Amino acid sequence: MTLLHGYWRSSAAYRLRIALNLKGIEFDQSSVNLKDGHQREEAHKALHPQGFVPVLNIDGEQLIQSPAILEYLEEIRPEPPLLPGSAAERSRLRAYAAVIGCDIHPVQNLRILQYLRKELGQDADGVTAWCQRWISDGLAALEKMAEADNRSGPYLWGDTPTMADVYLVPQLYNARRFGVDMGAFPRLAAADEAARAHPAFEDARPENQPDAPEDGH
Ligand SMILES: N[C@@H](CCC(=O)N[C@@H](CS)C(=O)NCC(=O)O)C(=O)O
Q: What number does the ligand 1 atom closest to the CA of 67 have?
């Protein structure tokens, strides 16, 4: 059995839900309530020493870190490819993923925002300004990359979803959540809209997860 330990609103878990759906790998989910701090409990830390989600149990393995897990899925289930093309093209796709996974997402994570609030005394406006600043900076770079690559679409890299979309859609979900003005990122917004219409992405949406609260918060 493949089991994803995640949370409806975790964008790293969202990436995995999309990839598992695209690869046609059936999975069950176990919810770790981040809002209530369950990720920091010893029982969860036995699964993930950092106290984060996601964790994926698959093929008798227990895997952590979404970039590493996505690479694993690509290796065990190469079709449909999320990293298609030449070595240079695959490197480019990994660069889209890295801008989001290494540079945008880490600084707007729950623990960082809690630190800003509790230890550094920031109010809600301060925290929102922080998120908007770093998300916008990263998206501006991605928009430039997409402009330079000038791919045909409708997805970020062409006519099939790739690793770039697997990272983009959850990140834009967060961008909207923090009120980032998407007007400056037309290519990203168009690719996001196309991807969200795909059933693998639709099924993975935070609101469609069994642990999503009815009021959406
Ligand atoms: N690089 C890690 C990041 C994982 C991560 O930050 N997960 C978040 C949810 S998206 C989390 O568990 N946050 C808990 C916290 O900040 O306390 C990955 O991609 O798996």
A: 19
Can you give the pTM of this predicted structure? 0.97
Domain residue spans of the chain: 3-80, 87-201
Centre of ligand 1 from the C-alpha of residue 53, in Å: 5
> How far does the centroid of ligand 1 lie from the alpha carbon of residue 9, in Å?
11
Q: Tens digits of per-residue pLDDT, 35-50?
A: 999 999 999 999 999 9
Q: How many CA atoms lie within 13 A of 5 on its CB side?
A: 23
What CATH number belongs to 3-80?
3.40.30.10
Exposure b/e, 107-123, CB count within 10 A at least 16 = b: bbbeeebeebeeeeebe
Ligand 1 site residues, Cβ closer than 6 angstroms: 10-12, 34, 39, 52-54, 65-67, 101, 109-111
